[in-house]
Please model this.
Amino acid sequence: MALSAQQIPRWFNSVKLSSFITATQLRKHFPRPGKTLLHGFSAQPQMSSGNYFLQWGFKTYRTSSLWNSSQSTNSSRQEIGSAQGTLLPSMNEQIQKTENIPSFDSELSLEALDDLPPVSPLQPVSEEEAVQIIADPALPPDTYTLRDYVDHSETLQKLVLLGVDLSKIEKHPDAANLLLRLDFEKDIKQILMFLKDLGIEDNQLGTYLTKNYAIFSEDLENLKTRVAYLQSKNFSKAHIAQMVRNAPFLLSFSVERLDNRLGFFQKELELSVKKTRDLVIRLPRLLTGSLEPVKENMKVYRLELGFKRNEIQHMITKVPKMLTANKRKLTETFDYVHNVMSIPHHLIVRFPQVFNTRLFKVKERHLFLTYLGRAQYDPVKPNYISLDKLVSVPDEIFCEEIAKASVQDFEKFLKTL
Amino acid sequence: MGSRGLARLHGLFAVYKPPGLKWKHVRDTVELQLLKGVNAGKAPAPEQRVRFLLGPVGDGEEKALTLTATSVPTLTNHPLVCGPACTSLKIGVGHRLDAQASGVLVLGVGHGRRLLTSMYNAHLTKDYTVRGLLGKATDDFCDEGRLVEKSTYDHVTREKLDRILALIQGSHQKALVMYSNLDLQTQEAYDMAVRGLIRPMNKSPMLVTAIQCIHFAPPEFLIQVQCMHETQKQLRRLVHEIGLELKTTAVCSQVRRTRDGFFTLDDALLRTHWDLQSIEDAIQAAAPRVAAELERSLGPGLGTQQLQGPGRPWDSRGPSSALGLESCAGHGQTPRLAGQWMDKNCS
Model:
């Protein structure tokens, strides 16, 4: 039942057995279900020399059949490269564990294969052989989703079990290619251990990696240097962990860049070192985001809205998000609060949270209070309503305690606006 | 919850569009909130797939490995790999409201979108409360527009205003009859006209079926308008024209739709209620009324030529003085094809 030498297909020529990685010629042919020489698998090289050729042929059949299920042709590494990189290491281990492959490689020459005619697919096959045909559908060489590869790649499976959202990552084509080529044991594990040492919990790793998958391509030494730099600036370990969690790209910034940014904030806001540190711990995305909106917002506060420097500093330490707020929303909110509600600057400074709420909320509540006659924002007079009570409390508490009306009344009023 | 929630999400419901928001933003926000609700179901059970793997079969001596069918876990349909189950919902909008107007906005989701077309073809009337401000004229008839003219309004009294409004209603009544293509010489048509059951069932310019002043405190006044085939800008222009008729000027400060067909302010959902559960409940609550009204307006099957008896009430309340005419029943239906039937018979 052994195939005659004639029947080994010509395309074996191009298979370079010495390196399994580059089976570039396989791409030209549709991967046919190969046979498995199970006897050969059991690793007793009892064949005579005359059969070397066949065994090698069978072996490649088998290996190619294993590959059928794992990769097929990787002609054009377009959208997502084949999973070869990930699979071949593991496949190699599997193959090498069970067979002495190299012993056959060196003995056979590729030229001898040129004389062999191809095997015809219509040739009758015995029952045993038929049962041993592995005919898994081939992996697509390029696809738009990682769904096609997730069952064949251990790396991807382990990432999903960690909680990484592959559907978000695959929207960036480079990201998906990167993940497919990584090996869990070699690259990913070290970075994960590093992150765990930093203080990121297991259940937070998933969300972190979904945002910053590029950390896998960073050098571990660089990451350690950056953490050391942060520690040298007197950030405690817990604080560093919190910052990394809230701003996943923090560790992808070089030491120089981090230094520049910290310096920028210290100079621009003219705060003390401790206050800058607290600010950055509370809102670490200041370090990773763009600096232009911050510069623009500082100008808006000073020139357009007319706040003094110490007032701006006070507001920013209380509500750091004001530095990155949308300029148009800021001006609209301020215009309503200052001109329509007639609240002076010094009161707004005491309650900067009003810049962090939606404008419609402020408008609706103010109009309701005006309708009820309770819109009194001057702390000197009785029945004073402070701005933070106006914006920060949920609807039920606002209606009961501040407006002294029911939620149904509030809803009826809203339907008259 | 996911697939089950989606199965019940078909039908019409109304939301209250706040002023300052474009109708498209409202529709997109509602869609996002519904998607959040639909995708919030619990994670599906881990799936398995069948693979043929090499496994030892037979006695130890033979060492033969054959393919056996084994069930192995698969991650292909895990939500972290393929993303959320539902990424978009089909939501349609009925009669639109522009950015400054507020009020009842009818939305249709899923199969309910074809009911939106039926509602449009039923040509039902809508109620608005329009607030006007005397003494100013602007270029877009709105009080935030560019000021064009200012005038005095001391001479304006409630009687003058009521007279003007009655004139407007009378002229629009004539237009109503004209656009309904009814020959008033017949007895049935005359009966219907007397009872106020006529309305055009095809395209026509804006027609005001009823208009009344509810509140008058110069410079502000509040009128209630019942109209069809209108846009909010035409209503603001109406306020401007009322000002001109009163020999002064007026701008419109608020246009608010209180009823759209058979959806009233009570049915409209506020922003805090734009979530899956409330919308499903609203659809369920409105479904029987929608079906009944559309059947009355359009006939049991669309396109059947039936003359419905003149005994059905239609907008019989007329403009009432209460803000928000929620208490009325049986709005907006009239023998749909009356005009066309008459036409056929008379031709």
Notes: DSSP finds 24 helices and no strands in chain A.
